[in-house]
Each structure stands twice: as structure tokens, then as C-alpha cells.
Amino acid sequence: MSVHIHILNVLWILSNLHPCVSAVVCEGLKGLTCCSGFAGYVWNQTVHNCTSCMSGFYGENCASSCLFPYYGIRCGSKCNCSEEECHHQYGCKRRLGECDPGIYGRYCELTCRYPGFGKDCQMKCECEEQNCNPIKGCILAAGTDQVTDLDLTRRNDGFCGFPKDSKHKRTIFYISIVLGTVAGLQLIAYIWLSFYRPTVPQRSELPI
């Protein structure tokens, strides 16, 4: 009896931690569906489960778009522009150059089209379309990206290939100073011994 009670307690805890297990999914006339009254979810036929609303939508069955000035996932972001320039999914319109690498458009809502990639899609992939990453360029091998002029510039920004202000850069710099100082002292000692080496008297010159 006690084991049965423990199992019921575990199932109740799981149902509260994961609402898709019980609270959101209901049995409808045509099978499983999202329960009525649970806003922010929509039935996803691909995964056969209730999923959260996509960016820019809210409400029961995600049927409503975000109201100005809110936008984005769960309408959790806020536009700082006019209503005419505020998109319920993407926010305010962007000026040229404000989009992240790999995307473009008035709202930065579009992915770079092949063969373009990078900032404002201005760089060009020299490979087949399936190997062209819209952000980094050509994927040469597993986990290896195309070496672009931008990458070379970034690599050369640092000291000995390390990024600027990195710990490795400072460590190598200090080691170089120490080694240079030691080498300089050794050179000075060698020169001093070469010119000012004390004269050792010969045996014949020693007093008897």
C-alpha cells in the first residue's frame, strides 16, 4: 500500500514539473490535443505534443500576435520605436550594418542566401551550397571552417597568435623579458671575463 502511495506522489510531482505530461495535453475528438484554457501552447503535429508558441505569438492555440510595443518569444521583449516600425516577431527595423553575421533584412529576419555569408552577407563561399555556413562560410571538414580574410585579421590581432589582452600573451611577454635579461647578463659577464681575466703567474715566476 505504501509503495502505491509513493508511486502516486511521484506521478503527481512529475505532472506539476512537466505540464505537457498531463495539464496541457488532453484527449480530443480527433485524438490528443492541447487542453482548452491553457494559453501559450499549440498542438505540434510533428512531435505529437503541445509546444510553446513561436516567437511573436501568444494566447490559446497561439492565435494572437504580440501587441505593440511587445514582440518576440512570449512577447517578452519591448520595442523602442514607433508602432509602424515594430514587428511582432523581430522588433524594430534595423539600419544597414546592424544585423549579426549570417542574417540580413529590414528586421534581420532573413538568412544569407548562397553563396553569401558573414556580416551583411558580403563574403562569398567558394564551395558547394550544402557546405556553406551563412555565418562562418565553407565547412571544409567536420568542425573545420573556411579560413577567411576576417579570420586571419582576428588571428593577427593578438601577440604570437593569441588574442589581445589574453593571459597567454602576458605570460609569453614576461617570459621573454626574463630570458632577454638573463641572456644580456650572460653576455656582459662573458665580455668582462674576456677583457679583464686575472693573470695567473707561471711556476717560474713563483718565489722560491
Mean pLDDT: 75
Question: Could you tell me the number of beta strands?
Answer: 17
Overall form: elongated
Distance between the termini: 115 Å
**Major sheet: order of its strands?**
15-16-17
* Low-confidence segments: 1-23, 143-164
Structural class: alpha+beta
Task: Work out the radius of gyration.
Answer: 35 Å
Number of helices: 3
Secondary structure: helix percent: 25-40%
State the major sheet.
3 strands, antiparallel
DSSP strand (E) fraction?
A: 15-25%
The arrangement of helices and strands along the chain is HEEEEEEEEEEEEEEEEEHH
Assembly context of the chains: single chain
Secondary structure layout plus pairing:
Layout: H1 2-17, E1 25-28, E2 31-34, E3 41-44, E4 49-52, E5 57-58, E6 64-65, E7 70-71, E8 77-78, E9 86-87, E10 91-92, E11 103-104, E12 110-111, E13 116-117, E14 123-124, E15 132-133, E16 137-141, E17 144-145, H2 149-156, H3 167-195
Antiparallel strand pairs: 1-2, 3-4, 5-6, 7-8, 9-10, 11-12, 13-14, 15-16, 16-17
